[in-house]
Amino acid sequence: MPELPEVEALARFLRERAVGRGVAAADVGAISALKTFSPAPSDLLGRELTGVERHGKWLDVTTGPSGADDVAPHLVFHLARAGWLRWYDEAPRTPARPGRSPLALRVRLDDGAGFDLTEAGTRKRLAVHVVRDPREVRAIATLGVEPLGPEFTVERLTALLTAKNQQVKGLLRDQSVIAGIGNAYSDEILHAARLSPFALTRSFDAERIATLHTAVLDVLTDAVAASSGKPAAELKDAKRRGMRVHARTGRPCPGWDGVPCGDTVHEVSFADSSLQYCPTCQTGGTPLADRRLSRLLR
């Protein structure tokens, strides 16, 4: 799933290539992806794209008004687990048609370029909204603090950690608490902070909170920098290459300062996801119980 660094890179990519161009076509290829009916995608036609913003893992493409009293619509979308943005310097002129294709939405611009929103697999969760205000989308209106914004201070993180006693992995992934962090970067942050994903948040002292705060900033800032300037087609591979523990089960832990710790990356599996961590770096050398594996061994 694209998370904050990749979505930020996509926002920058679209700003460079699409802002200032007019919308020549906006064709829906998957009715299930379109979550709103008014304004309609056709209301985007002829409008200039004026900006691209990011709200957590959501992308918000803004358009210009057609008159003095017009409230210009926003094209807002969430790529979910298997969605992606495919850019064309010369977009296909074939209209998107509902069917079994992975194509969810095709936007063609007045210079011939454009982009598709696509989603692989059978579990369709990609969401497209055309709205007057992005806050009309409840998932955006209820987003938590932006972790790379000035409001994400040690004091703010302390308040979030102590508000409810829960596993720190779950808190980092909760979009209503901190916006933009998902499964992959929460693994990376906890490895950088040398914290167990199951550590309870109210057990954190001031030193551990400061360490976690630094890890959030460092991991996300480095990932944004690594993604910046890359074409959309290269972002997935760049993300995979940058992971130290996530999706690296069974491989040697890279340790710190270029010195491997000598352990391997372990995994805990759930019904539809998994987390990765290093026992030596994060849990005092003790592997965490893998509940799914335990059930299989009974």
TrEMBL record:
It comes from Cellulomonas fimi. InterPro entries: FPG_cat (IPR012319), FPG_N (IPR035937), H2TH_FPG (IPR015886), Ribosomal_uS13-like_H2TH (IPR010979), Znf_DNA_glyclase/AP_lyase (IPR000214). SMART domains: Fapy_DNA_glyco, H2TH. Belongs to the FPG family. Residues 244-283 form the FPG-type domain. Keywords: DNA damage, DNA repair, DNA-binding, Glycosidase, Hydrolase, Lyase, Metal-binding, Multifunctional enzyme, Zinc, Zinc-finger. It comes from the Bacteria. The lineage of its organism: Bacteria, Bacillati, Actinomycetota, Actinomycetes, Micrococcales. GO terms for biological process: base-excision repair. It catalyses: Hydrolysis of DNA containing ring-opened 7-methylguanine residues, releasing 2,6-diamino-4-hydroxy-5-(N-methyl)formamidopyrimidine. GO terms for molecular function: 8-oxo-7,8-dihydroguanine DNA N-glycosylase activity; damaged DNA binding; DNA-(apurinic or apyrimidinic site) endonuclease activity; lyase activity; zinc ion binding. PROSITE patterns: FPG_CAT, ZF_FPG_2. This is Fpg/Nei family DNA glycosylase.
